[in-house]
Amino acid sequence: MISRDEQLESGVRLTVEPSDAVAAPGERLMLACGAPSPARVTWRHSANAPPTRDHTLSTSDSFRKQLANGSLVIESMSTTLAGQYQCVATQDGVGTIVSRIATVFLAELPEIVETVRTVSGSLGAGALLPCALRAPPRLALRVAPAAPERRVYGAAGKTHTQPPLLKLNVTWLKNGSPVRMESARISLTPSGALELEPLRPHDAAQYRCLVALAHAPAKHVAGPEIDLRINTDLSNVETPPRFIAVPQPVTVIEGASVTFDCAAVGNPKPEMIWLNNGVAIDLNDLDSRFYLVGSGSLRVQSARALDAGVYTCRAHNRLDSTDHSTQLQVLVTYLSREREPKVSALFREVTAPRVTLPGGAVARAHPRGDVTLRCEARGRPPPAVAWLKDGEPLNPNSRDIALLDGTSLRIQGVLRVDAGMFQCAANSAAGSAVAALRLLVLPPADDAKQTRNPNPNPNPSSHFPNSTHDIFDSLLSGGPDPTLDPMPEDLDFLGETSSAYTSGPDVEYDETDADDSFHATEGLDLDELGQGNATVVSAPRALRAVIVKHRFVTLSWEEPEVRLEEVTGYAVVYKVKGSERERIARGNPQRHEMNVASLQPNTTYQFTVMAFTQHSHSPTSEMIEATTAEEELTYGPPLDVHVEALGPHSARVWWAPPTQTHNGLASAAPPTRYAVYYTDEETGRELTQWAEGTSATLSGLRAAAAYRVRVAAAGGAPAPELRARTPQDAPAAPPANVTAVPSGATVLIHTFPSPLLYRVSRISTKN
């Protein structure tokens, strides 16, 4: 249980988030969202891609209205109002977060899949005529006027959430006329199939199913004609079972019900048995979600993840038995830590993403320090992970801001503007999930030494609480802040392998300062220390890079020429050239050299050094630059790289693995991870996405934008750069305030869609 203080510290949070929904044209729909005061809630909508800031709904939108509690009401559903919705909560001085993306479906007629065109039956036996409906995988179907669902009591009937329900009416025509249902002989199964038993001579005819939306029965889609043929020759000859209808593979969203149609004939009449993964299902349990409908079809009510697997319909009589198996796949929309161990890998073929934050909902960092925001994302297929800062996509650059293992975010050289709300967002074809945390950038810890040193100096005259010595000395004598990331050496960082590391210089360090040169400072704020006092201590001299490798640089300098006070330590300030993100490494006064580690290959860094005394500090030394070496490549470039836009905000990239040899050397094993680098040509911002296989889907792209894309295996050379352009986005709402001005034989139409786009089109008219 999170305390109230922890809730306040964790920043903005959502009390309720929108869920997927389906609505018929003209129907009213509400999407729930709420955040505790004083946060403000707004909404975004995009037709076919994750919405961005550019898709924010206007408060004057005439088609949608936001309620006082933050929920959004769609007054009259239409095609242009379907798509992906997201609510946004903002709190001044804290930050912004976004909800999971909820998809609003427009109720549309499903596709009818053609199965059989001829069904043969015997007089007195049974027949089953299929109406194979195919609905979108994230919707559940309910067919009327089929028999109502069985009432299941207790926990057996409960699921985590109910999926959007598409209600349909199914009718059957016999030689063009409606079939009259007879409860004792002719019935409609929950899948929409027509079952007749026993067959009579006049049942032979041409049959066709008609499917309509429940709210609009006049508009329908017709299935293929099925010719029912009846053998009127009665025979007392015993025959083994023979299937006249067999179950088909089905994929449903968790919580939806499914019917496996199955029928068989034989003499004696076959008995129908069902098995799940080879185990017989108890069809006599009245409180079970599994039960027979019709003469032999199986109904699975409110399917769960554990229901997925192989289902076998078995028909047997005293002569023989016959089996037919099929597969049920359940798209899991929610998988908690408690449920996950119970859902084996065999059944967890499709699961919606789940995001957790191992480090908690609050992270802390000091200016110029480092912090890693830990995130774990799971799901099948593996979701793509992106980070948001205050509701907007963050752009890792592989230098100062980078993804670790494709999920966690590392920020090196923290700035005060980094404070705010961060979200780890996971997206896949199975859905989306987000988790939010707040990054607090701490003020300088001037009293760090007093709070950490168990034996403070008892002589008050010798203590200067505001001196630079106190700040610097706290770095040497105080232990690291356990809430901060101590710049770990992550072997998986950016796909490095053991061959990509070069050992450090062969320099002996004293045990007392071996750790001092490799950790970010705590509480040292150079902005508040001023320019230094060269009359007390001058800048260190002759700063130079004595060793430059692809992952570290060793610096050396000479002590200051002016030293009116004893030097108590040195601090090296460094950053990537052109970046504002400075980092600091510190060392003790006895050593005039430092090994700066955790650098990026083929990157230019800028270095300065400054000295500290008891009461002052020096100006910074003259800046030098050093460019790290190229990475030692293990693999060649990927082959046959392709890229294509999937829509206004996404693109697909795929490729073949590189050859097993590079620079004449054979690779130990093919690569398992690839980096996809894509750059917006207009803004110049480069982003990176990691992929476990040989394809990746890039999301969050700008509409009508050109991107440069290149792919490289982890620790390998990149393939040649490709270029792709995303298409234009659809308007966020229907046109409004349409005016027409006649102009000879044409009409000039001015339209002003809400809220930002407009379109001018010319149409021809006839006099």
* Helix/sheet category: mainly beta
Which whole number gives the mean pLDDT?
Answer: 78
Uncertain ranges: 335-348, 446-523, 753-767
Largest sheet: 7 strands, mixed
Residue fraction in strands: 35-45%
Report the count of strand segments.
Answer: 59
**Looking at the structure, what is the overall shape?**
elongated
CA-atom Rg in angstroms: 34 Å
Summarize the amount of helix as a percent range.
under 10%
Q: How far apart, in Å, are the first and last alpha carbons?
A: 74 Å
Tally of helical runs: 4
Structure description:
With 767 residues, the protein is mostly beta strands. It is 3% helix and 42% strand. It has four helices and 59 strands. Strands 10, 13, 14, 15, 18, 19 and 20 form a seven-stranded mixed beta sheet that branches. The N and C termini lie far apart (74 Å). The model is unreliable at 335-348, 446-523 and 753-767 (pLDDT under 50).
Task: Please write out the topology.
Layout: H1 4-9, E1 21-23, E2 29-31, E3 40-46, E4 64-66, E5 72-74, E6 83-91, E7 95-98, E8 102-106, E9 111-113, E10 118-122, E11 127-129, E12 132-134, E13 140-144, E14 165-174, E15 177-178, E16 186-188, E17 194-196, E18 205-213, E19 216-222, E20 226-231, E21 239-245, E22 250-253, E23 258-260, E24 263-267, E25 271-276, E26 279-280, E27 290-293, E28 297-300, E29 309-316, E30 321-332, E31 350-356, E32 362-365, E33 370-373, E34 376-380, E35 384-389, E36 392-393, E37 401-404, E38 408-412, E39 420-428, E40 431-441, H2 448-452, H3 468-477, H4 526-529, E41 541-548, E42 553-558, E43 569-576, E44 583-587, E45 593-596, E46 604-612, E47 624-627, E48 639-647, E49 650-656, E50 661-662, E51 665-666, E52 674-680, E53 686-691, E54 695-699, E55 706-713, E56 722-725, E57 739-743, E58 746-751, E59 759-764
Parallel strand pairs: 1-8, 10-20, 13-14, 22-30, 30-31, 32-40
Antiparallel strand pairs: 2-5, 3-6, 4-5, 6-7, 6-8, 9-12, 11-17, 14-15, 14-18, 16-17, 18-19, 18-20, 21-24, 23-28, 25-26, 25-29, 27-28, 29-30, 31-34, 33-38, 35-36, 35-39, 37-38, 39-40, 41-42, 42-45, 43-44, 43-46, 46-47, 48-49, 49-54, 50-51, 52-53, 52-55, 55-56, 57-58, 58-59
